[in-house]
Amino acid sequence: MAAETTTLRDLRMQLRAWARARLWAQVLVGMVAGVLVGAVFGPDLAIVSRDTGEIIGRWLAIPGQFFLGLISLVLVPLVVVSIVQGITGSSGGESLRRLGGRLLVFVLVTTTAASVLGVVIVSAMRPGDLIRDAVAETAVAQGLEAEPAAAGEAPVARQLAEELPDIIVALLPTSVEQTLLDRDMLAVVILAVLLGIACMSIGRERAQPLLDVLGAVLEVAMKVVKWAMFLAPLAVFGLLAQMVIQVGLGTLGGLAAYAGAVLLGLLVLYMLFLAIVATLTPRKVTDFARMTAPVQLMAFSTSSTAAVMPLSIETAITKLRVRPDTANLVIPLAATINMAGTALYQSIAVLFLAQAAGLELSTGTTVGVVVSVVAASIGAPGTPGVGIVILTNIASSAGIPATGLPLVLGLDRPLDMARTAVNVTGDLTACVVVDGKPESDDGAS
């Protein structure tokens, strides 16, 4: 127990040191500089050729790739150890069931609400109607052809009902080695939960040798995370510069209606999270918004909930005064299954593609899309670019042609950054809701 307490204390001290170093300010400078440099070498000013610009972008992105690589290197052990320590540090089975039940209800309710909100916004604004001609031109340029199947006849709900039993059975990993090789984070989380429950079941005294080893693993993982944090400002600069060089500032503004629908939805979802904090917790909304801003900034810059997970844990413990056991359990779980921002984006993007193709979805198909989006968002990897893969699969299953996909791809990265920031806000909201009453200031020191 003493070893685990020391490990958690050291973790918090390291993360506080990073916060005192004004990491968020350095990241903000990196963001602005990245956009400016990207604009200089991007297609808007055309100072250099497109090929030369992309080469420059790849070189500038090296610190960012190292940053993401270091985080990816320790992500699995960090998630496993955090969850196991969170479970074994809880006050018992009743406490664990309470935390897990609250988190599951929160995820299902907010993810469903986000998906429905996306449908309402895109149906009201209809951004796909505004660029139908541009989509047709893109389809010709890309050699894409729309499938003639009517979207209203797509058996999305039936297909989901047929596949759901197999999906549920497949959740339980049957090979630890394969799970680690595939880096299936949902399977990793399930393994960690089972390991933590097993350790708690056999008694802390008998499980202590394993817990000591896991504590040492956490110390090593956090040392690697500390190295990665030193790269954060340069990483943000390089990744943003590369993104702007590739897509250009003009391209980002070319789909203003579609981007506006997504950003409006994310803003409403963010306000919903603040309303949940105001309603279900004793914390002040203004304090919550101020304390979580640095985490949102880092999440926006990296487009990865996994990359900011250590900072999320630190913020939950030291600023939001969440109990360490709760934060170490809820944050890794939420970072894996709580993707309300992604669900909202997917709903808007799927219906946007349908509108751009001139298709009117039936009520049944729309409901099927919402269900599919919720199911696909829960457990989606918290890494950059995964949203476009989910989008393609859902659109295909609903019989929606991919003619507008090239245009969506151009805006995926900046919108991915925005929805990742909202996803992280949802993780911290879930943490304070599940935890209940905050600890005293002494307990959070």
What does this protein structure show overall?
The chain is mainly alpha-helical and 445 residues long. The chain has a single domain (2-435), classed as Sodium:dicarboxylate symporter (Proton glutamate symport protein, Orthogonal Bundle), CATH 1.10.3860.10. The chain has 19 helices and no strands. The protein has helices at residues 2-20, 23-41, 50-60, 62-88, 93-125, 132-142, 156-170, 176-182, 185-202, 204-230, 232-254, 256-280, 285-302, 309-319, 324-337, 340-356, 363-377, 386-397, 405-435. 50% of the residues are buried.
Structural features:
445 residues; mainly alpha; Proton glutamate symport protein; 79% helix; globular; disordered N terminus; disordered C terminus
Question: How far apart are the termini?
Answer: 19 Å
The percentage of residues in β strands lies in: under 5%
Helix content: over 70%
Pairing-aware structural class of the strands and helices? Answer: mainly alpha
Please give the number of β-strands: 0
What's the total helix number? 19
If you average the pLDDT, what whole number results? 76
**Which residues form runs of ≥5 with pLDDT under 50?**
1-5, 138-154, 441-445
What gyration radius follows from the Cα positions, in whole Å? 22 Å
CATH superfamily: Sodium:dicarboxylate symporter
Order of helices and strands: HHHHHHHHHHHHHHHHHHH
The number of distinct structural domains comes to 1
Tell me the major beta sheet.
none
Please tell me the CATH architecture by its name.
Answer: Orthogonal Bundle
Task: Report the CATH topology name.
Answer: Proton glutamate symport protein
